[in-house]
Design a protein that fits this description.
This protein has about 375 residues and is an alpha+beta fold. It has three domains: about 50 residues; about 40 residues, no CATH class; about 220 residues, no CATH class. Helices cover about 30% and strands about 25% of the residues. The protein has nine helices and 19 strands. The strands form four sheets. Strands 1-2-14-13-15-11-12 form a seven-stranded antiparallel sheet, with helices on one face. A five-stranded antiparallel sheet has the order 3-19-5-16-17, covered by helices on one side. A five-stranded antiparallel sheet has the order 7-6-10-8-9. Strand 13 and strand 14 form a beta hairpin. The chain is elongated. The relative contact order is 0.14.
Length: about 375
């Protein structure tokens, strides 16, 4: 018998007393259990010894190896995802929305051009382009001054957006104004105050190099008080205009035609969203997902301004033109159009900016605006 083994068994109490035996004889099962436990302890001690013996360099190399494997797996998954998204039709609807959103910005078109060819992008843009082939007719719209101008502002929300709807009952109080100064435009809050108005929205676009435009350089035709401030009188323009009486006029005219149709002031922008009660937007992705400013008018002359916040994950991403059209339909709007949006989209009422603009800096400097006088 192994004396050392018996001693260890006795010291660890790994034995049983047996009657009718003169000496202490360990149970064979106890001996096997001890061997198994001892073997496990030795393995564990060996692993701990190996672990302690690893040098700092070896630990770093092991970490880097694991990190490299993780990066490789991530890259493979990312490349596979990009290929499936942009090069197959599995996510066609979302790919179209991505392209329309990217290509309708000034500074982020690379989000589409990095992954798709010019031909692929143009095919999507041309196929989903909004066609406006009808001008607004005014015989269905009644405009007249009201004894009391009622203005309401309502907060709205949808799947991807938060927005605000302002209604103005007296159309004669709505005016276009030029807000350019020598080397810059004017913030909407300043425009409203300078014109002794009560409310306002941004209107037309402007030159915006690298997103640092100061709002004083026009890049699309503008008519204010029948004067063409920018553009050619002979070119056909897609005009969103107001008559002297407060009628919203939508149409494709050259300068002379615009004046003959009663346009007092206008900006060249679009597309038109509703014309003579007819919806113009058919595709759910039309226009992409953006902050927006839109203008509409009901048959009774009431103006409806729709401002959509966007580019703010967790709060509001923006709205498509179809979503804005649906909003106008809920308010029984007869004519409506899309104005300049993005980081310019701003609504002001009763001494404060109503919406949450998409830039941390807040209000932008604007070349023109639509105001509601007192």
């Amino acid at each position: 018998m192994d004396v050392d083994l018996v001693t260890n068994v006795i010291l660890n109490n790994d034995y049983k007393l047996h009657e009718n035996q003169e000496g202490i004889e360990p149970n064979p099962e106890d001996i096997e259990n001890y061997k198994s436990k001892n073997k496990f302890r030795k393995k564990r001690k060996k692993k701990e010894k190996i672990k302690k013996s690893l040098t700092k360099k070896q630990k770093i190399l092991r970490f880097l190896k694991r990190l490299l494997i993780t990066i490789i797996v991530f890259v493979i998954l990312a490349v596979t995802g990009i290929f499936l998204f942009f090069k197959t039709t599995l996510f066609q609807k979302y790919k179209e929305l991505w392209v329309l959103t990217a290509m309708s910005t000034m500074n982020h078109q690379y989000l589409a051009t990095w992954f798709l060819s010019e031909e692929e992008i143009n095919e999507i843009l041309s196929r989903l382009q909004v066609e406006n082939n009808e001008n607004s007719e005014l015989h269905e719209v009644t405009v007249e001054a009201k004894k009391e101008n009622e203005i309401t502002v309502e907060k709205i929300s949808g799947k991807n957006y938060v927005g605000f709807v302002m209604t103005v009952s007296d159309p004669t109080k709505v005016k276009f104004v030029d807000s350019r100064k020598k080397s810059m435009g004017t913030k909407l809050s300043g425009i409203v105050k300078e014109n002794n108005a009560i409310a306002g929205i941004n209107a037309g676009g402007f030159e915006d190099p690298d997103g640092k435009g100061m709002g004083n350089i026009l890049n699309t035709p503008v008519i204010i008080n029948r004067e063409l401030l920018y553009g050619s009188k002979n070119n056909v323009m897609s005009l969103i205009g107001l008559s002297a009486e407060g009628e919203l006029i939508l149409g494709k005219y050259n300068y002379q035609e615009a004046i003959e149709h009663g346009i007092e002031s206008a900006v060249d922008f679009g597309p038109f969203i509703i014309v003579n009660g007819k919806n113009q937007i058919q595709n759910s992705n039309a226009g992409g997902l953006h902050p927006r400013m839109c203008i509409g008018q009901k048959k009774d002359g009431t103006f409806v301004f729709v401002c959509i916040d966007g580019r703010q994950p967790g709060y509001s991403l923006g709205a498509t033109l179809l979503e804005v059209q649906n909003i106008f339909n809920r308010y029984d709007v007869y004519n409506a159009a899309n104005l300049d949006g993005g980081s310019s989209a701003t609504m002001y009422y009763d001494g404060k900016v109503v919406n949450k603009t998409s830039t941390p800096a807040g209000e932008r400097y604007l070349p023109n605006a639509i105001i509601v006088t007192k």
